[in-house]
Amino acid sequence: MKKRDKKRILIANRGEIAARIARACRELGHTAVGVWTDNEIHARHLEFCDEWVRLPGMTNAETYLNVENILSVVKEWKIDGVHPGYGFLSENAEFANQLKKAGAVFIGPHVEAIRSMGDKAISKQIAKKAGIPVVPGSAEAVETIDSALSIAKEIGYPVLLKAVAGGGGRGMRACHNDDDVKNQFEAVQRESKAAFGNGDLLVEKLIVNPRHIEVQILADKKGNTYHFFERECSIQRRHQKIIEEAPSPFIGDDEELRKNICETAVRLSKAVNYDSAGTVEFIMGEDKSFYFLEMNTRIQVEHPITEEITGVDLIVCMIQAAFEEDLGIPSQEWISRTGHAIECRICAEDPITMLPSPGKVTGFETNFPQGTRFDHYLYRDLEVTPDFDPMVGKLVTKGVLREIAIRKMKVALDGLLIEGLKTNKPLHQVIIEHPKFIEGNYSTNFIAEEKPQESVDTSVKYSKIYKKLACIEARRMGI
User: Fold this and answer.
1) What are 393's strand-pairing partners?
2) pLDDT of residue 463
3) Does the annotation count 237 as an active-site position?
4) CATH number for position 167
């Protein structure tokens, strides 16, 4: 085996994804350089890093979003490459450009891919040119209410007012008639401007009972592009995913459809000369027709389920691609999938209102079945603050069959004990036992229509907790 040059990789992120990247760096023989801030001096991800660097400041704007400060660290600590994880600067084209000028590698795609795919209007035009189906609607930003009304009349209601920039469910409103467009247009503009610094909007046809299907892409700098099959991400609240699974139960055994959507994702990636890990997202109608939504030019939160069914470490490959190394993938046919994987995002939020619920972890124990993976940054005395995303971990189970993965997830959720912090675990427990979820017959409207939050039991069953703790302690003592 050829010896790899040791690189110094700065992880410009925090939490579970920073720990995940650090482990991949160490596996490749690179030096993982982690960062800590003044409001998170005991960050758990530092345990997995070889070196620690302070980013001074108490807010995200002063730390993880401060390009100037990060570039100073790159220079001072002789950093070879920067992995941004997801969120923060992960899809910031200017940051990637500044890194290039500083002589450091951005562990992600090239600048133009980030820029073009980060603009929903431009990405839609690229998709159209590549012969990829897109949701009917405006090809460019819509500037006036009258223009929006004209487009809505042409494509028919319902329509979606949608921010050109950004994501995460913000800057999106459904409109069912002219009055909705008139009432919502300026509100969405303001929300988009505040969230993304860009108030431009698109008007698109709203697909009824849609499925959110995405395809994992990996490409290198030698012109090779591969897909790693699809993920189903239709269980969402406020347009944000909370449960994902791979492969999609809606696509099921339709291998022709699977091949079609995956090859379409590859075609789009090649249209922008993509050269890293990324995700092409589609919306799929009840008739299984699908349309391009957007491309996320970074690693996704839900990448573990793809890793579980393919056996490929996407973070390792992402680092290899950035440094122009061979991915060790002979061909697309070499990539296969086995079994089924499900991911539940564990968030510090009220399981009924689904709103963030900061707090302090007073106890943390796990008792998981075989085939469980938990990417997290939890520990006793962890203070979860409103400063960051409320997700504290990703619980993943895998089974030979989907029903086995579901069965394992029930046991894994039951074996996850987080004291002192209100989480959405009870909501997950309701959802995975819901008949429609078990059947795989659900859309992005699942939470709005089925209202699983109304069945959540938040009463504290102390006897059950004490029994769990006793079993955990007995196991530790070898009894």
Assistant:
1) 346, 376
2) 45
3) no
4) 3.30.1490.20
Looking at residue 128, what is its pLDDT?
A: 93
CB 145 within 8 A of CB 185: yes
Q: Would strands 372-376 and 391-399 be described as parallel, antiparallel, or unpaired? A: antiparallel
The tally of CA atoms less than 13 A away on the side-chain side of residue 254 is: 14
pLDDT of residue 1: 46
Number of domains within the chain: 3
Q: Name residue, tokens 């919306």.
A: 283
Tell me if 115 is assigned to some domain. Answer: no
Q: Are 69 and 56 a contacting pair, CB within 8 Å?
A: yes
Q: Show which of 182, 205, 228 is a domain's final residue.
A: 205
Kindly give the parts of the chain with pLDDT less than 50. 1, 462-463
Shared domain for 345 and 452, answered yes or no, is: yes
If DSSP states are collapsed to H, E and C, what string results for 25-48?
Answer: HHHCCCEEEEEEECCECCCHHHHH
Amino acid at 411: V
Q: What is 76-130 written as a DSSP string?
A: HTT-SEEE--SSTTTT-HHHHHHHHHTT-EESSS-HHHHHHHTSHHHHHHHHHHT
Q: According to the model, what pLDDT value does residue 129 have?
A: 95
SS3 326: coil
CB 113 within 8 A of CB 274: yes
CATH number, domain of 296, equals: 3.30.470.20
Amino acid in position 408: K
Please identify which of the residues 8, 14, 231, 298 carries the catalytic annotation.
298
Interaxial angle between packed helices 93-101 and 67-76, expressed in degrees from 0 to 180 and rounded to the nearest 10: 30
CA distance 7 to 94: 23
Q: What is the pLDDT of residue 342?
A: 98
Q: Does residue 129 fall inside a structural domain? A: no
Strand order in the sheet with 105-106: 51-55, 31-37, 8-11, 81-83, 105-106
Residue 291: both structure tokens together: 């349309």
Predicted pLDDT of residue 479: 58
**Cis upstream peptide for 247 (omega within 30°):** yes
- Give this prediction's pTM: 0.88
Single-letter amino acid code for the residue at 126: I
Cα dihedral 76, 77, 79, 83, rounded to 10, equals -100
Residue 99 lies in a domain: yes
Give the bridge partners for 59, in sequence order.
Answer: none
Query: What are the beta bridge partners of residue 376?
Result: 393
> Domain range holding 198?
136-205
Distance from the Cα of residue 198 to its chain's centroid: 22
Does 130 map to a domain? no
